[in-house]
Amino acid sequence: MFEIIGTYGKLLMGAMGQTLLLALCGLFFGCILGIIFGLASVVDNKISRAISAIYVNLIRGVPMIVLAFFVFYGVPYGFKLVGIKFTLTALQAGTICLALNCGAYMSEIIRAGIQAIDPGQMEASRSLGMSYWRSMFRVVLPQAIKNMLPSIVNQFIITLKDTSILSVIGFPELVNKAQNVIAITFKSFQTWAIVAVMYLVVILTLQQVANALERRLSRDR
């Protein structure tokens, strides 16, 4: 095991960096999608609520590996059929895949967070002459996001774990590089043990952050 760490430690640490980069990109764009579809799910408009429900149910109903193959291989092939040359790098495809998946779950987190805020907050701000959307972004959403922070950190942990699936499209994340190390060393048990510890350290650290946020918010209430 120590021989693998000495020889391939830098390679695996670099791969962990790529994993964190991909997870952060996925979470960033996933939050944007989550806010858009989360807000669409709470407005008084049947069409927007239906669009949000379709997106959430569609993405949550498709396995992550299928979504990865569809984005990386299917989308460029679809463009090719109409005469457009279009390709995606593994990072671009991975970010899109994670963002779509994360966005569906973030949408539900944001919807629940908004609905947990006392409706009187919206009514009070509207009575002061603020528009619906100004009231939402200036009054309701800031309070909701504060309450949602632990859930957002937990979603980041889930997104970080999901990056391992993207080894199937060749993105050089931790699992992908671990497979390369095993192909060279034939030391499967030791390599996967190292990878498991690396994931465990990062995820436990993030979990502690989520727990600290939750305790802080509980004291502030």
Taken from the alpha-carbon principal axes, the silhouette is flat
Tell me the radius of gyration: 21 Å
Low-confidence stretches: none
How much helical structure, as a percent, in the residues? over 70%
Give me the CATH superfamily.
Answer: MetI-like
Q: Quick check: average pLDDT?
A: 88
- How many helix segments? 8
* Approximate strand percentage: under 5%
The number of strands is 0
| Largest sheet entry | none
Description:
The chain has 221 residues and is mostly helical. Helices cover 83% and strands 0% of the residues. The chain is built from eight helices and no strands. It has helices at 2-40, 46-60, 64-81, 90-115, 119-127, 132-162, 174-185, 188-220. Helix 1 (2-40) runs antiparallel to helix 6 and helix 4 (90-115) crosses helix 6 (132-162). It is flat, with a radius of gyration of 21 Å.
Brief account:
The chain is an all-alpha fold and 221 residues long.
Which short descriptors sum up this protein?
mainly alpha, 221 residues, MetI-like fold
Give me the secondary-structure topology.
Layout: H1 2-40, H2 46-60, H3 64-81, H4 90-115, H5 119-127, H6 132-162, H7 174-185, H8 188-220
Helix pairs in contact: 1-4, 1-6, 1-7, 1-8, 2-4, 3-4, 4-6, 5-6, 6-8, 7-8
